[in-house]
Design a protein that fits this description.
Elements: H1 10-16, E1 45-52, H2 59-72, E2 76-83, H3 88-97, E3 104-107, H4 109-116, H5 124-128, H6 137-141, E4 155-161, E5 163-167, H7 168-173, H8 185-199, H9 216-220, H10 238-253, H11 267-272, H12 283-292, H13 294-297, E6 300-304, E7 315-322, H14 329-339, H15 342-349, E8 355-356, H16 359-362, H17 376-390, H18 403-417, H19 423-443
Helix pairs in contact: 3-4, 8-10, 10-19, 12-17, 18-19
Length: 444
């Protein structure tokens, strides 16, 4: 299923995270060599807590969480700093080099890899292994690192699962049954082909940009992204070639807006204007359409994400890492657990379109409520929560698939979809470049 393009709002930044290229950023000076201190049993001392672009929208919420923690642990103090999304990873690099990382830090997928691979994060499974059962398994497993065994290097915070969003009126115009949405990547493409054939060019099926579809589509098709050792890309397969050939064919037939192959069009505007059938696979998008395009919202239907026969969905996860070697480990760990506990995550979900990674929080009745089944936003929340509880959550972007790797793969896919090179060559070249980048990163 297509991943959502991040919109320029605080909530969208919250959900999508800050994904910037980090592979070119070197760290020196032994920033990750600090010894991991042990717990003392005393929650005390001043710790720093860094979040990503939550002020001013969520200031009252976050400050309330901090105040309640300090009331429970009067010998502990939390200094909160919130930083903009632009340059977030670069700031982490600079702080790491200066030995100035915060004690508890909000991490997206890329920033988690950036610090975790360099040994800068405490192993919370080692420090606090009993906490694993407090989170949904897929979220806890997200923060393991290749080659580091059962270590978990961050507490899961909020997550958002994929769902399927589509315009049921356009579905019907294309001769499709809105009650039977696609369930596999292959069927999704079949539907897209029929939409292109029936639309007469008045609307398209989905966005062309491969960056929003990979590696998720390949994982759902059972294509092996990495080898067993997780140190080499292995997606150069007949199935991947078939995916490229199908994308090329659909692009030529008008199933996707032509301009969306090379640039990030505003999918909210296209969907809100009735020009595209499938919207982003994000529950937050449904809320945006409800607010900004009520007429199209009335025709919006939601369903479980396209999973394929493996039953996989993707999730977008944010986490709280603890600086390895922090002076106040007990306070840092207890605070990270406090922020990510069930009640606090449920309260956060009332203010933003996110889901708790905490199992107790996800069990809150608000995530099961569907109302009369006619309001897409309410149904989307229930569907997302249901998938988080039951689906295998391993169709997520591997930490090895950095922004640089993704960009390298996308460049070759774009050439093939436009007909500038054949599909097999595109996949072969993409894998070779991805492995070159992976090897370079391993040497740093």
């Amino acid at each position: 299923m297509t991943r959502a393009n991040p919109t320029r709002t605080a909530v969208a930044t919250l959900v999508a995270g800050a994904l910037f290229s980090t592979a070119a950023c070197g760290l020196s000076g032994g920033a990750g060599d600090g010894k991991e201190s042990g717990k003392t049993g005393k929650v005390a001392g001043e710790i720093t807590f860094r979040t990503l672009q939550l002020k001013p929208t969520f200031t009252a919420y976050v400050q309330g969480v901090i105040d309640a923690f300090e009331a429970k642990y009067p010998e502990a103090k939390v200094k909160w700093e919130d930083v903009p999304g632009d340059g977030y990873n670069e700031k982490l690099v600079a702080d790491a080099q200066a030995g100035a990382l915060p004690d508890v830090v909000n991490l997206s997928t890329d920033s988690f890899q950036l610090l975790g691979d360099r040994g800068m994060l405490a192993d919370v499974a080692k420090l606090d292994g009993e906490s694993a059962k407090e989170y949904v398994p897929g979220a806890w497993e997200q923060f393991k690192l290749p080659g580091k065994g059962d270590g978990v290097y961050a507490y899961p915070w909020y997550v958002t699962p994929e769902i399927l969003t589509y315009n049921k009126a356009l579905f019907e115009k294309a001769g499709l049954d809105p009650a039977k949405p696609p369930t596999s990547v292959e069927q999704f493409f079949d539907y897209a082909e029929q939409i292109a054939a029936k639309s007469g060019g008045q609307y398209s099926a989905f966005m062309a940009d491969p960056k929003g579809r990979l590696p998720g589509d390949w994982q759902k098709m059972g294509i092996p992204i990495l080898n067993e050792k997780q140190d080499r890309f292995t997606f150069d397969t007949d199935q991947a070639v078939a995916w490229v050939e199908r994308m090329k064919d659909l692009y030529a037939k008008g199933a996707m807006p032509k301009e969306s192959l090379l640039k990030s069009d505003d999918i909210n505007q296209l969907y809100g204007g009735g020009k595209i059938v499938f919207g982003p696979g994000s529950p937050g998008f449904v809320k945006d359409i409800k607010q900004n395009a009520p007429q199209v919202y009335a025709d919006t239907q939601v369903a479980g994400a396209v999973t394929g026969k493996l039953g996989h969905i993707g999730i977008y996860a944010q986490s709280l890492g603890i600086k390895k070697g922090t002076k106040h480990l007990d306070a840092a760990a207890e605070f990270a657990k406090w922020v990510t506990n069930g009640p606090n995550q449920v309260e956060f979900s009332r203010k933003a379109t996110i889901y708790p990674s905490n199992a107790q929080g996800l069990a809150d009745p608000r995530f099961a409520e569907r109302g009369d089944g006619k309001d897409a936003e309410t149904v989307a929340r229930a569907i997302g929560a249901e998938q988080l509880k039951t689906a295998a959550l391993d169709a997520n972007t591997p930490v090895q698939w950095t922004n640089q790797v993704g960009d390298a793969v996308v460049r070759e896919m774009q050439k093939a979809i436009k007909g500038e090179q054949d599909a097999r060559t595109a996949v072969k070249k993409a894998e070779e470049e991805a492995n070159r980048l992976l090897a370079n990163a391993a040497r740093k």
